[in-house]
Design goal:
Distance between the termini: 20 Å
Low-confidence stretches: none
Largest sheet: 6 strands, parallel
Strand order of the largest sheet: 2-1-5-6-7-8
Bound molecules: ribose-5-phosphate
Mean pLDDT: 95
Number of helices: 9
Length: 300
């Protein structure tokens, strides 16, 4: 067994267990509970003094509670004398608010990044972080960050299960990084649609050129309300695309998004396990282990 202790934060226990197995480390689930007024109780039930700790905590669905748990645990690991701490944040929250779009808005990404650095972790590993205007997450966190991807694994899964070729479609300009990576992995072509966001749950999709494809893999980093994907499916159907497979790294699936996606005509929905969800057919643990090795090379 390696000397790593892999702590499974709330909501990330299964993924932490897989990471621990892959690293031959000791797996320990954290003890957490809420007091009646929703204050959080956390206990690290293992001696961490002098040990290398990997703390896995996805901050999806309840990002505010997730962030508090992360800060509590990371600070405590430091106080208890852990020798080296990697925070694995499979879903990194607040990354979309990376600018002050309107006067007075909080640049949420910056505040979250500052808080994570303050928590005392030595490095961070995350998966397909929503980076748009910021290209290197280490520059905002101020510590080594490995941003690994599952896009290639998602596309390979579809090829392996369907055994048929497809073109990859990204629903908007921001998705080019993910669609192009997925396409390259399976030697497919890709196209990027144009999206205009009209509200939290309302988008408009367009594309000025022809799309010649019977089968597509529509891929994005996050599916939240599903508005983007539903609009894209409806748009592709109108353009005569017969089979549409949908994939994403982070399946938040709020407001019944999965039902809307299937009702719009998706043949299948494939997600990773960065967020607990019923469509997690691809595990991110191998990519995360790669990221752990990468940050260790950069910090030791
Ligand atoms: C934002 O640009 C992201 O890449 C996703 O496209 C977005 O978060 C999806 O949100 P929704 O599912 O609510 O349309």
């Amino acid at each position: 067994m390696s000397d790593f202790v892999v702590l499974g934060g709330s909501g990330s226990v299964n993924l932490a267990h897989k990471i621990a197995r892959g690293l031959d480390g000791l797996f320990v689930p954290l003890i957490t509970r809420f007091f009646p007024d929703r204050e959080l109780y956390v206990r690290v039930p293992v001696d961490v003094e002098g040990r290398r700790i990997i703390y896995v905590k996805s901050m999806a669905l309840r990002p505010n509670e997730g962030l508090v748990e992360f800060l509590f645990v990371a600070r405590t690991l430091r106080e208890l004398g852990a020798s080296y701490i990697i925070g694995v944040i499979p879903y990194f929250p607040y990354a979309r608010q990376d600018s002050r779009f309107k006067p007075g808005e909080v640049i949420s990404l910056k505040v979250v990044a500052d808080a994570i650095r303050w928590s005392g972790v030595d490095a961070v590993v995350t998966v397909d972080m929503h980076l748009h205007r910021v290209s290197d997450p280490s520059s905002i966190l101020g510590i080594p960050v490995a941003n690994v991807t599952v896009m290639g694994d998602l596309a390979s899964y579809v090829i392996q299960t369907r055994k048929e070729r497809f073109i990859v479609v990204g629903p908007d300009e921001e998705a080019e990084q993910w669609a192009s990576y997925a396409a390259k992995t399976v030697s497919a072509d890709y196209v990027i649609l144009e999206k205009e966001r009209l509200g939290d749950e309302e988008v408009r999709i367009s594309f000025s050129k022809d799309i010649v494809a019977d089968r597509v893999l529509l891929i994005d980093d996050i599916i939240s309300t599903g508005s983007t994907i539903v609009e894209a499916i409806e748009f592709l159907k109108k353009r005569g695309v017969g089979e549409i497979y949908v994939a994403c790294a982070h399946a938040l699936l709020v407001s019944g998004a999965d039902a809307k996606i299937f009702l719009a005509g998706a043949r299948d929905l494939i997600a990773s396990d960065t967020v607990n969800n019923p469509y997690a057919k691809v595990s991110s643990h191998k990519a995360i282990i790669k990221g752990i090795r990468e940050v260790m090379r950069n910090t030791r």
